[in-house]
Design a protein that fits this description.
Chain lengths: 138, 175
C-alpha cells in the first residue's frame, strides 16, 4: 500500500473525530445551574447602590455571577413565557431589581421579604438590574 | 409675592393641562427572540427587555446581551465571549420614534400599523434602522410587535462561520 492513501485516511479520521467532538460539546454541554453555585450574598438595595455609583466596578463584582439577593417584593408578575418575575424594591421608586425564576416559586406576596438566587445579567440605567435563571431560597 | 404665587399657579395649570398630557407606558419584561435563517438551531430569547412607549411616538428598548438564553449552552458561551463580546458591550439599546403616531389612537381598540425609525446600538456600533411593527390597543392595554433583520457585519460582529444575519422579533406588553 502506498503512503498517501494512509495519510489521507488518517487525515479524514482526524477530521471526523474532531468534528464529532466539537458537535458533541455543542449539543451536550449542560446549562449553568445556579442551585449548585456559591453565591455572592447581598440586599437588593446594596446591589442597586453598587450599580448606581459605579457600573464598571459593579460589573466586575456581580456580572455573570450567582447572586443571593434579599429584599422586599414590590411587584409580582409573569413574563410572556410563563415564568414568574419579582421586582425588588429599592429606595428609588423608579428603579427595581428585576428577577426571573426558572422554577415556579409558588405564591409570592407583595410587601414580604424573600431571598432569591440567580445569575446577574447586568444593569439597565434608569430602570433595573436584571437577575434571571433564579430559584427561591426562602 | 402674590404675583409669584399666581404665576406658579398658572405654570402648574399649564404643566398639568390635558393638552400637554404626555403618557409613557413601560415594561421591564418585553421579549426579544432571534433565529438564524440558515440554521434554526441558532436561536435565542431574552425576556428582560426594558421598553418605554410614549403617546407622542417616542419608543425605546434596552436589553442585556447576557440575558439571551440559547437551547445549547455552548452556543450561548460562543455568542457572549466571541461574537457579541458581552463583557465589553453588555447592553444593546434602541431609541426611536413611531413616525405615523398620529394614526394610532390610544383610546380606541384596534391593531395599528406602526412605522418605527431610530438608532440601534449593538456591539458598540450605532446604526439607523427602520422597521414595520404593529401596535395593539385593547381596553387601555397596549402591546407592540415588530420583526426586523440584523446583519452581522453592520455591527462588526464576526460570526460568519455561523450566520451572516439573524431575524429578530420583539414583543412588548406595556403597563
Amino acid at each position: 500500500m502506498k503512503l498517501w492513501p494512509k495519510v489521507l485516511l488518517i487525515a479524514i479520521s482526524v477530521a471526523i473525530i474532531t468534528g464529532g467532538v466539537i458537535a458533541y460539546r455543542i449539543f451536550t454541554k449542560p446549562h449553568r445551574d445556579v442551585t449548585a453555585e456559591k453565591a455572592v450574598t447581598l440586599t437588593a438595595q446594596k446591589l442597586f447602590d453598587a450599580f448606581k455609583t459605579n457600573e464598571a466596578n459593579a460589573n466586575q463584582l456581580y456580572l455573570d455571577k450567582a447572586i443571593e439577593l434579599s429584599g422586599e417584593v414590590m411587584e409580582v408578575s409573569t413574563n410572556q413565557d410563563g415564568k414568574a418575575v419579582v421586582n425588588f424594591k429599592t429606595n428609588d421608586p423608579l428603579f427595581v431589581i428585576n428577577c426571573t425564576f426558572k422554577t415556579n416559586p409558588g405564591e409570592l406576596k407583595v410587601g414580604t421579604v424573600i431571598t432569591f438566587k440567580g445569575i446577574c445579567t447586568g444593569y439597565i440605567p434608569d430602570a433595573n438590574v436584571v437577575i434571571n435563571e433564579g430559584i427561591l431560597i426562602k | 409675592m402674590k404675583h409669584l404665587s399666581l404665576l406658579s399657579f398658572i405654570i402648574f395649570l399649564l404643566a398639568n393641562s390635558p393638552l400637554n398630557a404626555q403618557k409613557i407606558y413601560g415594561t421591564r419584561n418585553a421579549k426579544i427572540s432571534f433565529v438564524a435563517p440558515s440554521d434554526d438551531d441558532v436561536k435565542a430569547v431574552n425576556n428582560e427587555v426594558t421598553s418605554r412607549l410614549a403617546n407622542n411616538g417616542a419608543i425605546s428598548f434596552s436589553l442585556l446581551i447576557k440575558g439571551f438564553k440559547f437551547g445549547y449552552a455552548e452556543m450561548q458561551d460562543h455568542f457572549n465571549n466571541e461574537y457579541l463580546e458581552s463583557n465589553k458591550f453588555p447592553r444593546a439599546d434602541f431609541k426611536g420614534t413611531i413616525t405615523n403616531i398620529k394614526e394610532i389612537i390610544f383610546t380606541k381598540n384596534g391593531t395599528y400599523k406602526a412605522q418605527v425609525t431610530g438608532s440601534l446600538t449593538l456591539h458598540g456600533v450605532a446604526k439607523n434602522i427602520t422597521a414595520n411593527g404593529l401596535i395593539t390597543i385593547n381596553n387601555g392595554k397596549i402591546s407592540a410587535l415588530a420583526k426586523f433583520p440584523i446583519v452581522m457585519k453592520d455591527y462588526k460582529i464576526e460570526a460568519a462561520s455561523v450566520t451572516d444575519k439573524v431575524n429578530a422579533e420583539i414583543s412588548a406588553v406595556y403597563q
